[in-house]
Amino acid sequence: MLSESARQRIDQEVAKYPPEQKQSAVIAALSIVQQEQGWVSPEAQQAVADHLGMPPIAVHEVVTFYNMFNTRPVGRFKLNVCTNLPCALSGGGTAAQYLSEKLGVALGETTPDGVFTLQESECLGACGDAPALLVNDRRLCSFMRAERLDALVDELRAEAAKGGTQ
Question: Which long-range contacts (CB under 8 A, 24 or more apart) does 4-8 make?
Answer without folding.
Answer: 5/36, 6/32, 6/33, 6/36, 7/51
